[in-house]
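User: Fold this; tokens only.

Assistant: Input:
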Amino acid sequence: MRRSIWLATLLASSLAAAPVSLIFDTDMGNDIDDALALAVIHALESRGEAKLLAVTITKDNPKAAPFVDALNTFYGRGDTPIGVVRNGSTPEEGKYLGAVADDAKRFPRDLMSGKDAPEAVGLLKRILKDQPDGSVVMVQVGFSTNLVRLIGDEEGRELVKRKVRLLSLMGGAFPTISAEYNIKIDLASSKKLTAEWPTPIVFSGFEIGKALLYPAESIERDYAYTPNHPIPPAYRAYMKMPYDRPTWDLTSVLYAVRPDRGYFSLSPEGRVSVDDGGYTRFTPEKGGPHRFLTLSDTQKTRTLEALVELSSQPPKR
């Protein structure tokens, strides 16, 4: 059964004529790679390779949704549905949300506060109901809060089983070297997700994004086609320039849409578990529901070039 699911996943993703239907679940505001990952999604949609169905947010700060809405609006997709977590983790503003969310004149959007956005689980259920069976790829690059609440809802779990074919998840470390941030912040949800999520999961571990550093020179050069691009001020606000930042979240997006382009390789099938310390453990298992990305030295240059090109691609007007 598991083998047939994996084959169906690869077959569906290889049909170039059918854009990949994506739901992007993000802790926007904690690290700048979330913003770059959303830019990659918009570039892929402009190329006809993806369709962004919704963005859901696991950072419980009122400026996160306005930031996402401003970025979507910049790319000409301001009508993209946005859902937010209630009573979630990391309520602090973070270092870069205000650089965009506080300037509605320069970065227009409809949402002025996350309080005006719907709760994430209800939005996810509504979006999934309208999709064909087995058609949706979910990309989780933050905490597991929203998705665990989704499968904790009886209707939500059945919708995931029917509608979702793959979860591309940034989290963990393979081999285990530390408790990775996305996993440990909402540890209970991370443990439950790995144990109970009903579709295949491909993990992009800490080591993958760490090996692919987004170059600061691209921020200064490749986004200069407009003075009102939201990425550069956010990137500069996150840390003192110049700095090269790991592309953790971007890698999960790239795999979700282009799994068969050779940017990454895959581990054998198996099962990931999360222990009480937040460490991810992978156990090989024939027909297992989990795999993780691997990256060879020969893949690194081409993969990073793709991430930089996509994230800096101008909007399609």
